[in-house]
């Protein structure tokens, strides 16, 4: 047993503290697979955890970070052996289970997904929970029956992690993507990802009407609150909105009108406890449906020592696309 670098979160007199430090391997939690973590990423939830802006962390001390890609070092799980390349997202990492901003992680083998062929560990974390959540949202819209001929698909928070990947994937699949952003300076960036239209989020920020003019067949929303209420009111008959985030708030100031007069569906997307078969499908689809060149264009890299500062920036809406965190 030894020590390794990790971003440790501790309870403080007021809130929490987060710092890069040495963590004792003996303090790792129970699990049947130990992984040498090579890459992680920065998601909105990670920003909340490392800044203490929301009560994401449920036990202390905690290692932050909700997903990783790496190589199995030790395993007593029948599915995994030393040398296997794996990805892990969610399952309470960084919340109730020691997370991924560390050189080592010990987890349950049932949480792991094999790194898909053609995707490097770095690419997997360029996708990360944000991109995996975007693909879960696309799968939900497809399951609802939406196809490119159904009509436009709106993506909110489009310049963020979920929105960037959603825009890129939907456009590659042939959808007419309407990208909503609070940063109209990113319009060229979003068109480069494949957005056919870019709209200001101000169009969706006012009080929602029970029913508004029909504008799209479906959508992927990472904002919540009034934005989601407006999306629902503007969705075409029989359409659907996949809700996967709450950057704008946890409330939903809407009415039942879109549901009972237009047959609109609200599809809830959970990435944390998503069943393994759906995870495998999402990662398989990401390998085939996400343009690797566009992924490279939306990604930049930081080290472990930069994560806490970057966490504050992602909450302030100052991060475009995806951030990968180099661990080793």
Structural class by sheet pairing and helices: alpha/beta
Average per-residue pLDDT, rounded, comes to: 96
Unreliable parts: none
CATH topology of the largest domain: Quinone Oxidoreductase, Chain A, domain 1
Considering the protein shown, what is the CATH homologous superfamily of the largest domain? Medium-chain alcohol dehydrogenases, catalytic domain
Shape type: globular
Count of helical stretches: 9
List keywords for this structure.
single chain, 328 residues, alpha/beta, Quinone Oxidoreductase, Chain A, domain 1, Rossmann fold, 2 domains, seven-stranded mixed sheet, six-stranded parallel sheet, 9 helices, 16 strands
Textual characterization of the structure:
The chain has two domains: 3-115 and 298-326, Medium-chain alcohol dehydrogenases, catalytic domain (Quinone Oxidoreductase, Chain A, domain 1, Alpha-Beta Complex); 129-268, NAD(P)-binding Rossmann-like Domain (Rossmann fold), CATH 3.40.50. Helix content is 29%, strand content 27%. It has nine helices and 16 strands. Strands 3, 5, 6, 7, 8, 15 and 16 form a seven-stranded mixed β-sheet that branches. Helix 1 crosses helix 9. The longest helix has 24 residues, at 121-144. It starts with a strand and ends with a strand. The relative contact order is 0.17.
Please specify the SSE layout and strand pairing.
Layout: E1 3-11, E2 16-24, E3 33-41, H1 44-51, E4 62-63, E5 67-75, E6 85-89, E7 104-107, E8 113-114, H2 121-144, E9 153-155, H3 161-172, E10 177-181, H4 187-193, E11 197-200, E12 216-221, H5 225-233, E13 235-243, H6 257-261, E14 265-268, H7 276-289, H8 292-297, E15 299-303, H9 307-315, E16 322-326
Parallel strand pairs: 9-10, 9-12, 10-11, 12-13, 13-14, 15-16
Antiparallel strand pairs: 1-2, 1-4, 3-5, 3-7, 3-16, 5-6, 6-8
């Amino acid at each position: 047993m030894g020590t390794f670098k990790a971003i440790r979160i501790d309870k403080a007199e007021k809130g929490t503290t987060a710092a890069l430090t040495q963590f004792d391997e003996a303090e790792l939690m129970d699990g049947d697979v130990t992984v040498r973590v090579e890459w992680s990423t920065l998601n909105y939830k990670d920003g909340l955890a490392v800044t203490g802006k929301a009560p994401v962390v449920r036990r202390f001390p905690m290692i932050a970070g909700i997903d990783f890609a790496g190589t199995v070092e030790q395993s007593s799980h029948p599915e995994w052996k030393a040398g296997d390349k794996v990805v892990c997202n969610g399952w309470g990492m960084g919340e109730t289970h020691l997370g991924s901003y560390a050189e080592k992680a010990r987890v349950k083998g049932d949480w792991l997904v094999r790194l898909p062929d053609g995707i490097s560990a770095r690419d997997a974390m360029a996708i990360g929970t944000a991109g995996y959540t975007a693909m879960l949202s696309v799968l939900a819209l497809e399951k609802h029956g939406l196809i490119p001929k159904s009509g436009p698909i709106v993506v909110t928070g489009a310049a963020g992690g979920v929105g960037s990947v959603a825009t890129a994937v939907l456009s590659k699949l042939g959808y007419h993507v309407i990208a909503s952003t609070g940063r109209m300076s990113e319009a060229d960036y979003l068109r480069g990802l494949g957005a056919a239209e870019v709209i200001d989020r101000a169009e969706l920020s006012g009080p929602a009407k029970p029913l508004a003019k029909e504008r799209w067949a479906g959508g992927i929303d990472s904002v919540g609150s009034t934005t989601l209420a407006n999306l629902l009111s503007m969705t075409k008959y029989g359409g659907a909105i996949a809700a996967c985030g709450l950057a704008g708030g946890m409330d939903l100031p809407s009415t039942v009108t879109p549901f009972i007069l237009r047959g609109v569906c609200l599809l809830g997307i959970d990435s944390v406890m998503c069943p393994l078969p759906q995870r495998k499908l999402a990662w398989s689809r990401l390998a085939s449906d996400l343009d690797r060149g566009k992924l490279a264009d939306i990604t930049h890299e930081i080290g472990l020592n930069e994560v806490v500062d970057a966490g504050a920036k992602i909450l302030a809406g100052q991060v475009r696309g995806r951030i990968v965190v180099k661990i080793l």
